[in-house]
Amino acid sequence: MSELGRLLYETRTAKQLSLADVEAVTRIRQRYLEALEIGDYDSLPRGTVARGFVRTYAAYLGLDVEGVLDLYSVESGDTNPETAIAEPGKPRLIDYRPLEVELIDPLTRTRWLPWAVALAFVVLLALGGWWLLNRNPDFNLLAAFGPAASVTPTSTATQWVVTATPKPAETPTAPLPEPTSDLLPLPTPTVQASATPTLRPSATPEFVSALVLEVIVAQRSWVRIVVDGEVAEEGILEANASRVYEAADSITIRTGNGGGVTLVLNGEDLGAMGNVGQVIEHTWVVNPEGVAEAADQPNTTFTVTPTPAG
User: Fold this and answer.
1) pLDDT in tens, 93-110
2) What count of Cα atoms within 13 Å lies in the side-chain half-sphere of residue 74?
3) Which terminus of the chain is less hemmed in, N or C, by CB atoms within 10 Å?
């Protein structure tokens, strides 16, 4: 027994758990659990699926997951990154969740950027004018930013002050407050309330990158298996026969006896394909979002009518 197998076995027995108890929670078949405990790594699916078994089993027993994975890599020589098979207490790994798609077009984000800059400039300009008016009430904002024609009253006013010195009482700058009253509404726009929308980051799920399909025949059945576009097997399998197929892109299985064929996908028991005598087909593909199951082909049930002898 290997060091990893002894650790898993002693921890499980200390918790008074049987292999059937572990299988019921982790959805890992007992023969794979037993292979891990006795160090029979050749009986495990190679690559990411096997490391997923180790991670799930170690997490269920409460062990140091990373330490157990390192020990498995040393003993088995398998250093590929693992694929999460199932979390303890959850019935299925592949739940075929809907895709998470951002509803905001990336082009839209760049379209409002020039408008936001222009709006910020207008707001800053209004705030600057409001600050100048409060700091210096005699400041003529229209004279500073208005057309050149506004300089004419300034020159005439200067000429009038020089010639009409006997009337100092008529020098009030009453016309000046009028522009200020017109300019006070400038800082009123509260456009800065339109904050830049923040997008909720979506967690990156951990996807399955390989397909390992185990076919277990309970009744004599005709089957056809296509792996990555190549026909891997086609013919009649006798009862108690089993096959394991690995695919990188897609895998399709079709049978004429759905009730006589049981499937295990990536270590998870999917049960019988259908009913006894039912023609049924399943296809799984690996895409950037994970593993997806294609629509099943139309099912046909054949009824066997006994023919009287003689």
Assistant:
1) 444 444 444 455 555 666
2) 10
3) C
Q: How far apart are CA 39 and CA 236, in angstroms?
A: 34
Per the structure, how many domains does the chain have?
A: 3
pLDDT in tens, 1-11: 788 889 999 99
Q: Mark whether 67 and 121 lie in a shared domain.
A: no
| Residue 233 belongs to domain spanning | 211-301
Indicate the pTM of the whole model. 0.37
- Asked if 215 and 173 sit in the same domain, the reply is no
From the list 196, 205, 217, the residue with the least C-alpha distance to 262 is 217
Domain boundary among 36, 61, 76: 76
Number of Cα atoms under 13 Å in the Cβ half of residue 242: 8
Question: What are the backbone angles phi and psi of residue 68, rounded to the nearest 5°?
Answer: -65, -40
Same domain, 36 and 118: no
Helix residue ranges, H only, 62-150: 65-76, 106-135, 141-145
- Within a 10 A sphere around the Cβ of 240, how many other Cβ atoms? 10
Q: Using CA of residue 110, residue 112, residue 118, residue 124, what is the dihedral sign?
A: negative
